[in-house]
């Protein structure tokens, strides 16, 4: 077995851990503390004013607080602290435009919540361009059907909706998505989910391995599967309805497909040796994976309708960690065929393979951003493992993180953020970093270990 597998075993990179678990098998409530690790000095300032509430019952969630947190986590916005806000308006008509622009704020979110019935709330919010409003005095003249009419074009968005108490957090994410898209031109990804593997104390839990799904910010975690044996490498289907993952429930690695709504599941592979690292094609019809049924870990692609396999690589070195390019025409994978693990790309039409990473001692776990512009990788330089991105046009590499023993990066569906696993107090935990590296944070785990995060596609 190759030496780099043993060097990486402590990092628990997917295949390394899978191999170790395979050998072993042959022989035998979320935390809420967030630690911000990167600043947002260059992010766009924005005002998210606390929504005014008219009602007596305690609100189930602080809407404006969730919106501000979402926007900050994107790395593209820097919400103004409450203590620095010049006023607390509820509507556009209450805004002192001059006061906000003097604070360097050009966009403000205001809103209100009114209790309208049993567990029913009327939510209104507005996104205001205060810089535009200051220039026009709140009234602009536009030409419509040959006539000049007065407009309030500084009101970028205004919506009103009645929601249930249980929908507060979801609606906050919807507001965040709307604001994000209006101001960046990109679709927001705050209404997405993540999946990951959680490992509880093995001495006190008969089923310590958990397959968990949660909101993108790890709120509302739900255990989809508990197992006495290791679970690994969850990955979302493109429609967001299913997860593929590796299970050792039967004392050997097997790949399963599970519906997240019905929890029904199907075993896809049960080949001798390694069955690991599943990855859906963009159209959801094929699944790339690593199998060692023929003796050496190689990349295969399974047609999910016929279950027919196509072998993609054939090499004495270990090939692993396949992921698809956005057009579904190529696979990115890790291979040690050059002596040390590096990222390669194979064209599925021609089977032509090419190496695409060269900087640093090793590069692993590659995935291409949705716009096909960046390769996200785990880069090892001078013994340190960090998340990095490589420009696919000019080859420039930028290290994004300063955390410890980073691994398993997964990209949000709009390409703005990356979730990955870090070592925190000796245990794997979750961390997030914006694609430009300007904002990052991590979430310590109080009860167990969390690893192998996978970001869902857009769900709406």
Automatic annotation (TrEMBL):
Keyword Cell division found: yes
GO cellular component: periplasmic space
Organism: Glaciecola nitratireducens (strain JCM 12485 / KCTC 12276 / FR1064)
Taxonomic placement: Bacteria, Pseudomonadati, Pseudomonadota, Gammaproteobacteria, Alteromonadales
SUPFAM superfamilies registered for this protein in UniProt: TolB, N-terminal domain, Tricorn protease N-terminal domain
Subcellular location: Periplasm
Protein origin, superkingdom: Bacteria
Alphabetized InterPro entries for the sequence: 6-blade_b-propeller_TolB-like (IPR011042), Tol-Pal_TolB (IPR014167), TolB_N (IPR007195), WD40 (IPR011659)
Occurrences of domain TolB N-terminal (ranges): 33-134
Keyword Cell division annotated: yes
Keywords from the UniProt entry: Cell cycle, Cell division, Periplasm, Signal
Protein name: Tol-Pal system protein TolB
Family per similarity comment: Belongs to the TolB family.
A Pfam family the protein falls into: TolB_N
Gene Ontology biological-process entries: cell division; protein import
Signal peptide: 1-29
Biological role: Part of the Tol-Pal system, which plays a role in outer membrane invagination during cell division and is important for maintaining outer membrane integrity.
Subunit structure: The Tol-Pal system is composed of five core proteins: the inner membrane proteins TolA, TolQ and TolR, the periplasmic protein TolB and the outer membrane protein Pal. They form a network linking the inner and outer membranes and the peptidoglycan layer.
């Amino acid at each position: 077995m190759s030496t780099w597998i043993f060097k990486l075993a402590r990092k628990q990179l997917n295949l390394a851990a899978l191999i170790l678990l395979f050998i072993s098998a042959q022989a035998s409530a979320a935390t809420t503390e967030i630690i911000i690790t990167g600043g947002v000095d260059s992010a766009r300032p924005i005002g998210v004013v606390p929504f005014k509430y008219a009602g007596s019952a305690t609100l189930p969630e602080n809407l404006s607080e969730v919106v501000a947190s979402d926007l900050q986590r994107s790395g593209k916005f820097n919400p103004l602290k409450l203590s620095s806000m010049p006023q607390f308006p509820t509507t556009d008509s209450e805004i002192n435009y001059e006061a906000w622009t003097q604070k360097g704020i050009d966009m403000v979110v205001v809103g209100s919540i009114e209790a309208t019935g049993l567990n029913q709330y009327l939510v209104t919010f507005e996104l205001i361009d205060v810089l535009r409003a200051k220039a026009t005095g709140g009234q602009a003249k536009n030409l419509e059907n040959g006539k000049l009419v007065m407009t309030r074009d500084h009101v970028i968005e205004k919506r009103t909706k009645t929601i249930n108490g249980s929908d507060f957090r979801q609606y906050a994410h919807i507001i965040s998505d709307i604001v994000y898209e209006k101001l960046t031109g990109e679709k927001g990804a705050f209404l997405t989910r993540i999946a990951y593997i959680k490992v509880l104390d093995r001495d006190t839990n008969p089923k310590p391995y958990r397959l968990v799904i949660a909101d993108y910010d790890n709120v509302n975690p739900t255990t989809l599967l508990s197992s006495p044996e290791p679970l690994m490498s969850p990955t979302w289907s493109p429609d967001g309805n299913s997860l593929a993952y590796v299970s050792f429930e039967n004392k050997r690695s097997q790949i399963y497909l599970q519906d997240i709504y019905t929890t029904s599941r199907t075993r896809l592979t049960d080949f001798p040796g390694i069955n690991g690292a599943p990855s859906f094609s963009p159209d959801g019809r094929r699944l790339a994976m690593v199998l060692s049924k023929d003796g050496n870990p190689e990349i295969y692609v399974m047609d999910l309708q016929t279950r027919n396999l196509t072998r993609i690589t054939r090499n004495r070195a270990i090939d692993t960690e396949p992921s698809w390019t956005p057009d579904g025409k190529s696979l990115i994978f890790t291979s040690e065929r050059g002596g040390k693990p590096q990222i390669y790309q194979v064209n599925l039409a021609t089977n032509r393979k090419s190496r695409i990473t060269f900087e640093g001692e090793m590069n692993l776990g590659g995935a291409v951003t949705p716009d096909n512009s960046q390769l996200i990788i785990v880069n090892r330089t001078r013994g340190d493992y960090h998340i990095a991105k490589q420009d696919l046009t000019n080859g420039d590499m930028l290290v994004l993180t300063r955390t410890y023993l980073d691994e398993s990066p997964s990209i949000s569906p709009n390409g703005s953020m990356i979730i990955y696993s870090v070592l925190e107090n000796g245990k794997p935990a979750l961390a997030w970093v914006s694609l430009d590296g300007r904002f990052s944070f991590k979430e310590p785990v109080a009860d167990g270990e969390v690893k192998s995060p996978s970001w869902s596609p857009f769900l709406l």
